[in-house]
Structures are given as structure tokens and as C-alpha cells.
Design brief:
The chain is of the alpha+beta class. The chain has 2 domains: about 180 residues, 2-Layer Sandwich (Ribosomal Protein S5, domain 2); about 130 residues, Alpha-Beta Plaits (2-Layer Sandwich). The protein contains 11 helices and 12 strands. Strands 1, 2, 3, 4, 5, 6, 7 and 12 form an 8-stranded mixed β-sheet that branches. The protein has a 4-stranded antiparallel β-sheet with strand order 9-10-8-11. The longest helix has 19 residues. The radius of gyration is 20 Å and the shape is globular.
Length: about 325
């Protein structure tokens, strides 16, 4: 049996520019980080003394004779993709709810790919695992969205992702000091909107806007210099400006509750804020000084997610 934990992510700059329809014409540049919130997955080949069935447990329980009978499309197609023809047991659970803008489904998919790579001894490279997850989610399942979420789980901490017009991606750690990384981490507050939506519909609405995505791309490149200067206030202001451009891509990206939270924290004195993910629900990220952060925590008590930056990527917890 193998158990791993696959991290979730916070996308700071460049989100929506990682859609194929955009990067194949303009390229993409993204800055973000993995965090210490995970989906946990374990897998083993089912012992021969047990019934020759596939056992999958997530928010539901499935015990079936064949892969084709598995109802969860992500699990079914990932097993099918790697031709897992010996019955397995898959168990999974998560630190956060699904469909909340932290890249959960891709974290799960990449985690499954890593598990299968290990138990089948395929010896895949990181890039091969990432490309497999992209192929499964974007081509086989035909889910709308970009490709950054499949890259993040195998990345470590604050990084940049550059995607060229051919879809090749290059991940580099941000050249910042440990002291700044800790200071930036402490400036973050995540507020849960307590809503979940059909994010695939929202993701589809990102496809056709070019001008706002160009602005988001330019702001992502500008923000890189702000990281080099270790200027948190300006990073926050740039984050908010980027959010305003993203919000204009589609009326589905924001809603009344999201707007109220973002307007509220900005009036409190936050440097910047944005809704994470494709939009509509999930977590609002706020960047602020410590005084404003405490005000936010006091007001949104019970809906604040405490996070730290992850510096390890996917971790193997247990192998037997």
C-alpha cells in the first residue's frame, strides 16, 4: 500500500492565461504557491483472497467488477488511462471542500497518477505525470480550464510558471528570501465564502476574452519585479488590479457575496484581495498588514482558513 498527500495551491497572478486558447497565441506567466492543505490518497492492488473488485472510497463508496462501472469520472478515466487491469483499492479524503478554487480536482488527479506510477513501477518523470493529468482532465474528461492546476502539486512553495505557445511549461522558485516568504505568508488571510458551484460552467466562460487576459498577463509580469523588491503592499495592490481585470472576463466569475467580502476587506485597509479559482465561490484571498488581518479574522471568525506555504510538493506518507 502507498499513501501520499497532494497539496492544494493559491494562484496569485496570471490565472486564466493558462487556457490553451490563450497561451497558444500569447504564452502565459503565473505566480503562486502550494499550501499546507492536502488531499490524501492511498492505493494498493487488492489481495487475491478478497473479491476481484475495484474498491473506491471518496465522498461515496463504490465496489464494482470493472473500471467501466466506476461512476466517479476522474477515478474511472485515470485508471483506464494507465490500464490498471488488476483490481485496486483507492481511499481518499481532503482537508477542504471540493470546488472551492484551490485546485482540488487536479491535486487529486496528479495524486492518482503518482500512486499508479509507483504501484505499477512505470518510472514516469514529473513532466510525464503532469502531462498525463492535463490529458485526462482537459482532453479525455473534456473539462474546461487551464493547465496550471496540474503543474502545482509537483511544485514547491512560491514559484513562477511560464508556459510557451507550444504548451511547454517551466517552473522556477521565486528568487526571494526566506524572511520575505514568511512575511508574505503572514500577510495572507483566506476567507471561505461557504459556497460551492459548478466551476466547469464558470471555467468555460473564460474562453473568449482576450483583452482582459492580456492585462492579467502584463500584471503578472509586473508583479515579478515587485517580488524581487519584496514589496508586499505593492504586490497586494497589483493583486487587486488583476482581480478587477479577471472580474470583467465574465459575469459568472463574481457574485454579490464575493463582492461584499472583497469590498469590505478593502475598506478595512487591505492592500489587495481576489477570489481564488475560476470564480463564483470558494475562498477570497486577502493581503494586508497584521493590524488589518486581525480585524478581518475577528469579523469573519469561523470562515478563515489558516494556511502556511508548502515547500515539499507531493509527499509520500507511507509505503508497504
Amino acid at each position: 500500500m502507498l499513501i501520499i498527500k497532494s497539496p492544494f495551491r493559491i494562484s496569485l497572478f496570471g490565472g486564466s492565461t493558462d487556457y490553451k486558447s490563450f497561451y497558444e497565441n500569447h504564452g502565459s506567466f503565473i505566480i503562486g504557491t502550494t499550501i499546507d492543505k492536502y488531499c490524501y490518497l492511498s492505493m494498493r492492488f487488492r489481495p487475491s483472497i478478497l473479491s476481484k473488485k475495484y474498491l473506491c472510497t471518496y465522498s461515496k463508496y463504490e465496489l464494482v467488477d470493472t473500471i467501466d462501472e466506476i461512476k466517479n469520472p476522474l477515478i474511472r478515466e485515470t485508471l483506464r488511462y494507465f490500464n490498471v487491469d488488476i483490481p485496486i483499492e483507492l481511499f481518499s479524503f481532503s482537508d477542504i471542500p471540493a470546488r472551492t478554487g484551490l485546485g482540488g480536482s487536479s491535486s487529486y488527479c496528479v495524486g492518482m497518477c503518482c500512486l499508479i506510477d509507483k504501484i505499477k513501477q512505470l518510472n514516469l518523470s514529473k513532466n510525464q505525470i503532469i502531462k498525463s493529468a492535463i490529458d485526462i482532465e482537459r482532453n479525455i474528461l473534456n473539462e474546461s480550464g487551464g493547465i496550471q492546476d496540474q503543474i502545482w502539486p509537483l511544485s514547491k512553495g512560491i514559484s513562477s510558471i511560464e508556459i510557451d505557445k507550444q504548451g511547454n511549461f517551466y517552473v522556477k522558485p521565486m528568487p526571494v528570501t526566506e524572511e520575505f516568504s514568511n512575511e508574505l505568508q503572514n500577510s495572507f488571510t483566506l476567507i471561505y465564502t461557504d459556497e460551492q458551484r459548478n466551476t466547469d460552467v464558470i471555467a468555460k466562460s473564460h474562453e473568449n476574452d482576450i483583452q482582459n487576459k492580456l492585462n492579467i498577463l502584463n500584471l503578472a509580469k509586473q508583479s515579478y519585479d515587485l517580488f524581487l523588491k519584496e514589496d508586499i503592499k505593492s504586490i497586494g495592490e497589483c493583486l487587486y488590479e488583476s482581480w478587477l481585470s479577471k472580474e470583467r472576463i465574465s459575469p459568472l466569475i463574481s457574485n454579490i457575496k464575493t463582492k461584499e467580502i472583497i469590498d469590505d476587506v478593502m475598506h478595512m485597509g487591505a492592500y489587495g484581495s481576489k477570489l481564488l479559482g475560476s470564480g463564483g465561490c470558494g475562498f477570497v484571498l486577502v493581503i494586508s498588514d497584521s493590524i488589518v488581518k486581525q480585524k478581518i479574522i475577528n469579523k469573519y471568525n469561523g470562515y478563515v482558513l489558516d494556511i502556511k506555504f508548502n515547500t515539499n510538493g507531493i509527499l509520500e506518507v507511507f509505503q508497504n
